[in-house]
Design a protein that fits this description.
By secondary structure, the protein is mostly helical. About 85% of the residues lie in helices and about 0% in strands. The chain is built from 3 helices and no strands. The longest helix has 30 residues.
Length: about 100
Amino acid sequence: MQRWLYMLGGLLVWAVHFVGVYTIASIGDVVSDADAPTWRLIGLTFSAFCAMIALGLLIHALRRADGGTDTIDLANTLARLGAFLALISIIWQSLPTVVGY
């Protein structure tokens, strides 16, 4: 189970980010306006936190040495790709909040 969490960690962070940003925008839209500076700051803070976690997972996966077996090499490759994809996706999903829609 630990190897699965290692391989899918980045994608899990991306999924949590997607649900979190959607929830923050929905709550902001119900309470006042999703475009309000307070809700944009909350969304950007949450996005920055998720991006730091994804970057940490990517650095951890890059530092981890390949063990020579195909299973370990595949696990490291999937962890690296998943964390990189998550980092790029989190940044991409945060751009409308930064630009202001």
